[in-house]
Amino acid sequence: MEDKIFELMEKMYIEFNQRFDTIEKDITDIKGDVAGLKGDVGGLKGDVAGLKGDVTGIKGGLKKTNAMIEHEIMPKIEALFDGQIQNSQQLERIEAKVSKHEDIIMRKIK
After folding, report:
1. In Å, what is the CA distance from 39 to each residue of 12, 30, 47, 57?
2. Could you read off the pLDDT of 57-108 as tens digits, one per residue?
């Protein structure tokens, strides 16, 4: 009877050891996975920091572009519009004078 109890205890001991070995292996695998995830998160943090730097650079470039548009390009566009208005007014005056001359010529012909 003692032999059967001993064999049963020995079988239980072997089964527990196998299960504990499996659990230890699983825990080791999980630790490896967690370490890999930590590395991935670290990489993502680096990427985010790089993107922040890029966005900051883009913002700086945008400010320079806006300043150039306001101080260099807009005055030139306004000058062009003013010139266009002056040309239109001059053409209207010329058109009016030509119209008067056409009327005079038409009267002399009749």
Report:
1. 40, 14, 12, 27
2. 999 999 999 999 999 999 999 999 999 999 999 999 999 999 888 888 888 8
d(CA 64, CA 57): 11
Q: At 39, give phi and psi (nearest 5°).
A: -65, -45
Q: Give tens-digit pLDDT for 9-68.
A: 999 999 999 999 999 999 999 999 999 999 999 999 999 999 999 999 999 999 999 999
Q: What is the pTM of this model?
A: 0.51
Residue 110: strand, helix, or coil: coil
Q: What angle do CA 20, 21, 27 make, to 5 degrees?
A: 85
Distance between CA atoms of residues 99 and 91, nearest Å: 12
